[in-house]
Model the fold of this input.
Amino acid sequence: MNTPLRVRALTRADLAFADRVRELAGWNQTRADWERFLATEPDGCFLAEWNGQPAGTATTTVYGSALAWIGMVLVHPDARRRGIGSALLRHCMDCLRKRGVRSVKLDATPLGRPLYQSLGFEDEWPLARWAGASPPPTPSRSDPRLRPWDPKDTPSVQRLDEAAFGISRQRILHLMLPQTQAAWIFESEPGRISGYGMLRAGSRAFYLGPVAAESAEAGIGLAERLLAGCPGQPVYWDIPEANEPAIAWAGRIGLAVQRPLMRMFAGVNLAPGDPRRQFALAGPEIG
Ligand SMILES: CC(C)(COP(=O)(O)OP(=O)(O)OC[C@H]1O[C@@H](n2cnc3c(N)ncnc32)[C@H](O)[C@@H]1OP(=O)(O)O)[C@@H](O)C(=O)NCCC(=O)NCCS
Done:
């Protein structure tokens, strides 16, 4: 029997549709994010067609055999509830399995969560998107432990990030760096890096993250320094519920929860990481 649904590889020629369906969902990613997904996984980004017309998208990011991420699961509002979202997800899972990946994660919106549950995903931990205006600049003393990221920091940042996230994101961080508005390091004592963070422009708001740090002092210091890069501007910040210092500080500067999200996993959770060291996600679409 002929089915109207077909899932195929997403190409650069599909990015106008992909970014439109992203905009219709009110998401914050940019064209540069889509380009980065294609650069990272040229064969791991997918487009669903319904009767030959583009209808939905999904991306995968393989961090290693111990973990891959699924993101950008978007179905055009006119094409929802036809099984397109679940077909995209099954396609991603099949491809990841063929590549030998044993654990898959994603951050689910309330709309996506039932779909993922029906495909065997389990809750790992809750998080929330905080949003609001970045605080106005305050004439504060500059902290000498904070300084801009230098390429020579990469090995230390990688170790730090791996302890927080659970597996190395080096390839993604490297591609994300040129996209950032600012990237800072917290050097608690000379030669000892105990935190790093990035801020980048999104299509609706600045995005604070990733920020990974070994202490609240480093994590909050970095968040404060990064937000000083966009005073008074709209900002989004995704924070694990387990990171109490980050949540308390986000509330104190006047940000509010915009929506809850749930980190979910399928398979064995081989790379749990430590959400208390994740002061800001890199993005729900990549972890
Ligand atoms: C979440 C999202 C991707 C789901 O896409 P979708 O194509 O509508 O998903 P499906 O059709 O596979 O499944 C959705 C529902 O339709 C039902 N459905 C599937 N095929 C159907 C059919 N032929 N007829 C009627 N209903 C059908 C499913 O059972 C499911 O029902 P439920 O909501 O009661 O569980 C889509 O709503 C979306 O793009 N939302 C905005 C972005 C977003 O939140 N993405 C998730 C990120 S985590």
Q: What stands out?
A: Residues 48 and 120 are 21 Å apart (CA to CA). The first helix runs from residue 15 to 24. The pocket of coenzyme A is lined by residues 25, 73-75, 80-86, 108-109, 111-112, 114-115 (CB under 6 Å). DSSP finds eight helices and 13 strands in the chain.
